Amino acid sequence: MNKGNFGTLQDGRSAQWLEIENDKLRVRVSDYGATLVSLWVKDAQLDAVLGFDQVGGYQQSVKYMGAMIGRVANRIKDGQFTLDGQVYTLYRNDKGNTLHGGQEGFDAKLWTVREHTSQTVTLELVSPAGDEGFPGELTVTVTYALAGSRLSITTRTRTTAATPVSLTNHAYFSLNGQHPSLDGHWIQVDADEIGLLDPNGCTRPETLEVEGTVFDLRQPKRLTEILNQHHSQLEIAGGLDHNYVLNGVGFRPVASLVKGGLTMRVLSDMPDMHVYTANFLNSEVGRGGTRYTPHCAVCFETQYYPNSVNDPSKISCILNPGITAEHCTAFEFDQEDQA
Prior knowledge:
Helices cover 5% and strands 44% of the residues. By secondary structure, it is mostly beta strands. The protein is globular and about 60 Å long.
């Protein structure tokens, strides 16, 4: 069970990395943001996620790279919501909206390591009542676990008062190895609808049927071809930055990413997934001195429909006291033998 020092936070506290490994995968996680730092696929001999060599890179970048996002992933419109007759006002950190939990979301917290074995690591965070304006004390655990060629990320949450909760992992994936790029990548997402963006990038209640549009990913499409299309919705965010309303229920395959002989499958029990093509990366210097440029990776952020706390027509993200909510998203790899 390898672990080590991951550097010093701006407030002087130390962060660490923790490693889990089997014969297929080697994964590093940090207690800072419960962040997925590295996902080494042994058969393909590449790291499937972007990351930094030290914790300072994560603090300086503020692109949520690999981190656990909470309390509520994505955007809450106008930074407020009403729950049980009370209006809650949140910090607005993205064009008048609340993005990824607010000014200091779960991605910027130092989590507590609860368990570390050879193939699992569990971290815990207690978010006090009033944290970033949200009601109720929320206790969160996240477990990273290996089984064959699959990495699963399981969250468990409980609260002392009703509160919105929509957690996700914000890993940036590229199957291109040391020099991240989406060239030659094919994407597939099992969804018939997407949420439309307003001019400020917040997902509207209205959805669009993907049939006949650039957003139809039900059959594999080249990511670079999608990004080269002209569509008003792509222009708002400079690429894909859209919520896909996933088909099916329960834990099931929801998406795939393919480059050459390597396939990554995404499985989840969540109802929605935000697909984001790293549009706002800005040549940050990442692992090993590699520069991370726009469109060099893609995120699969499983979640509840964005801003659903303000839209009763969507599946509710409200967690009530007395309930422990558990959700799982997994990433599974398959490397074809090259002739």
